[in-house]
Amino acid sequence: MLKLPVMPDSKVIVVSGGASGIGSEVSSRLATEGAYVVIADLNAAQAEAKAAAIVEAGGQAIGVACDITNPELCEAAAQAAVDKYGRIDGLVNCAGISKPHDSISLPPTDWARMVDVQLNGAFYFAQACTKRMFDTGGAIVFITSTNAEAAFPRRAAYCCAKAGVAMLTKVLAIEWAEKGIRVNAVGPAYVATEMTQRNIAAGNVNEGQIKARIPLGRLAQPADVADAVSFLLSDKSSFITGHSLYVDGGWLAYGYF
Questions:
Q1: CATH tag, 12-247
Q2: Beta strand 90-93 pairing with 244-247
Q3: DSSP-assigned states of every residue in 106-171
Q4: Which of 80, 73, 76, 62 is nearest to 18 (CA)?
């Protein structure tokens, strides 16, 4: 029977955006598998509540406040992990936003905010954590999207930012390989999260149309993404780096809308 990868030796994993959505599921999964989880989230109260829930369930976790668009706060979150657990073995960048908008009227501030959170923040967070992994090695997983490969209307900023993270994954993978640090990405299609439900309610996403477009006929569940993240953090993926693993139900393989 195939078993899920586990985190050997109580690996210390920092998860940005780890208090809600995909990040919440990832945090829970890693804790269940034996990781010491540092939940870095813009919402400090949610981060602390999520960590408390993990501890109550028998896991190890702490919550810290972190705005990943601020390099100094990324450094502080990474240092909090070291102060608590003595090291960092890996990170998962789940923090993100979604705000569809017609390109012709997209405000520069909205464009800048999307790039700042999705791309700049991913780099700042990875840089801060990796400084503390250079002597010991580790693994990095970025959450990207099928939109890193496939364009979607009214999502110019989002698609470009996610494509940037996919390329960042490759650059860091080849640059940091000599330090024993692997860098990969997980790119889901639409995931059944609160963010997606808000977009459905706002009319930005047609759920029926999306499901019809996915060969497997459903939205991804947060657990599907957590499965892929767990694999890429584990020793079972020790010879995989610079790779984007798409958890999309066949979305990218299907050439018609």
A1: 3.40.50.720
A2: unpaired
A3: --HHHHHHHHIIIIIHHHHHHHHHHHTTTTT-EEEEEE--GGGTS--TT-HHHHHHHHHHHHHHHH
A4: 62
Crossing angle of helices 21-32 and 222-233, in 10° steps, is 50
Residue 48 pLDDT exceeds 80: yes
Chain centroid to CA 149: 17
The pLDDT tens digits of the residues spanning 145-170 come to 999 999 989 999 999 999 999 999 99
241's tokens: 């780096």
As beta bridge partners, residue 92 has: 15, 141
CA distances from 203 to 67, 136, 142 (A): 28, 47, 28
Given a cut of 60, is residue 60 above it in pLDDT?
A: yes
| Residue corresponding to tokens 């639409």 | 190
pLDDT value at position 2?
44
For the chain, the domains span 12-247
Please give the helix or strand (H or E) that residue 76 lies within, else none. Answer: helix 71-85
So what's the pLDDT on residue 1?
Answer: 41
From residue 19, give the alpha-carbon distance in Å to each of 29, 37, 100, 181: 12, 11, 23, 25
**Cβ contacts of 205 within 8 Å, gap of 6 or more:** 190, 196, 199
**Residues whose CB falls within 8 Å of the CB of residue 210, separated by 6 or more in sequence, listed in order:** 189, 190, 219
Name the band, by pLDDT with cuts 50, 70 and 90, for residue 204.
Answer: confident
pLDDT tops 50 at residue 194:
yes
Record the pTM.
0.94
Local structure of 15: helix, strand or coil: strand
Sign of the dihedral through C-alpha 53, 54, 60, 65 = negative
Q: Is 143 left (phi over 0), alpha (psi -120 to 50) or beta?
A: beta
The residues that are catalytic are 158
